């Protein structure tokens, strides 16, 4: 493949925020940091990101408030929405390559993957990316599943040299503020012993991550593929800090 930075947001556990993390990273990098971004949605059969984009476009057609939000962002940044390409798992790498062959090369190309590792096509995509972000929650089943996933990536793909992966990083997501910080320190130390890198930034469990645009409601929008997260809701979300940490990891 050509030379964008390829990123997979992946885990074998559903419901840990893979698609939400992909949208927030892509939108913040594109609209706020000024990078060129593309996304391949190969999380079949739901294709939640591609359908989210389609829904947002339809909502904009029916809501003057949303149209103005998108127009204001374009006026300020001179950046149109980044492409979201729908693909099957089998064709995901070919879909990405076809896009790169026919367009200017983005800085980052994200793959939104289904919650499984027991699939040859998923493993093949992971083998070809440069960075893997694994969102994880402090739930026993999510932890067991996430650690198993990370061990496989480290042992079968990274350590063996059978991939292009430069780093795998766990992202603590949906962190309940009532949970003891000491608990996460113990988890971090345990994963460090296994050779699993954990990012310092933790994303809280907050309703703002589900605050999308609405054709009926005139409200601030946090999660969108057409505009960046609303500034008034960024504080305490961890998104700015996560992006800055991600850029340090990728040396961008």
Automatic annotation (TrEMBL):
Gene3D superfamilies in the cross-refs: P-loop containing nucleotide triphosphate hydrolases
Domain of life, per lineage: Bacteria
InterPro entries for this protein: CobQ/CobB/MinD/ParA_Nub-bd_dom, DNA_Partitioning_ATPase, P-loop_NTPase
SUPFAM superfamilies registered for this protein in UniProt: P-loop containing nucleoside triphosphate hydrolases
Domain CobQ/CobB/MinD/ParA nucleotide binding span(s) in chain numbering: 7-216
Record-given protein name: ParA family protein
Upper classification of the organism: Bacteria, Pseudomonadati, Bacteroidota, Bacteroidia, Bacteroidales
């Amino acid at each position: 493949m050509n030379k964008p930075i390829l990123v997979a947001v992946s885990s074998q556990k559903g419901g840990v925020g893979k698609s939400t993390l992909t949208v927030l990273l892509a939108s913040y990098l594109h609209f706020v940091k000024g990078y060129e971004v593309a996304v391949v949605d190969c999380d079949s059969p739901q294709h939640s990101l591609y359908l989210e984009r389609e829904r947002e476009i339809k909502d904009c057609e029916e809501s003057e408030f949303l149209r103005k939000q998108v127009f204001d962002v374009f006026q300020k940044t001179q950046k149109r929405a980044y492409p979201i390409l729908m693909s099957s798992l089998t064709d995901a790498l070919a879909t990405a390559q076809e896009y790169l062959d026919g367009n200017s090369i983005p800085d980052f190309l994200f793959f939104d993957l289904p919650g499984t590792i027991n699939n040859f096509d998923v493993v093949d995509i992971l083998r070809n990316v440069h960075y893997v972000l694994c969102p994880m929650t402090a739930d026993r089943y999510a932890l067991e599943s996430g650690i198993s996933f990370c061990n496989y990536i480290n042992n079968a793909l990274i350590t063996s040299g059978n991939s292009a992966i430069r780093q795998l990083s766990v992202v603590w997501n949906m962190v309940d503020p009532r949970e003891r910080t000491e608990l996460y320190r113990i988890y971090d130390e345990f994963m460090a012993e296994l050779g699993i890198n954990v990012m310092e930034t933790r994303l809280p469990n907050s309703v703002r991550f589900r605050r999308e645009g609405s054709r009926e409601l005139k409200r601030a929008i946090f999660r969108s593929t057409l505009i960046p997260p609303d500034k008034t809701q960024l504080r305490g979300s961890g998104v700015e800090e996560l992006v800055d940490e991600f850029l340090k990891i990728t040396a961008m």
